Amino acid sequence: MDSYGRAVTLMGEAGAGQLTKMVNQICIAGLVQALSEGIAFAEKAGLDADLVLDVISKGAAQSWQMENRGKTMHQRKFDFGFAVDWMRKDLGICLEEAKRNGAKLPVTEIVDKFYGDVQKSGGKRWDTSSLITRL
Question: What are the distances in angstroms from CA 60 to CA 21, 66, 82, 131?
Fold first, then answer.
């Protein structure tokens, strides 16, 4: 059983798995934006971005995205994982649900627009770590 299936089992309500997936996408959107900004900042500051990622991945900033996409983001390689088109679809679902349930998602709204910029620049099929390209 996948993690979303476990959410349904644990929460016991129909739709809990889909809502859990929405939470995951909301969290990833903000995290990838922050990672993009951090890497871009390191690059502009003249730091060795790979070394910076090695150092900060041992502390509080550590994440799956940093460990698995940080260096490829710095290298501008975006042929891994989940496509921007799919992320936009999922974030649209999240934003619609937020309208329905009254949740406030200001960062998700911004990052969704940023992914729209990536799509317009030709990155529809790049993975979500391509968010760094708009910086």
Answer: 24, 11, 25, 22
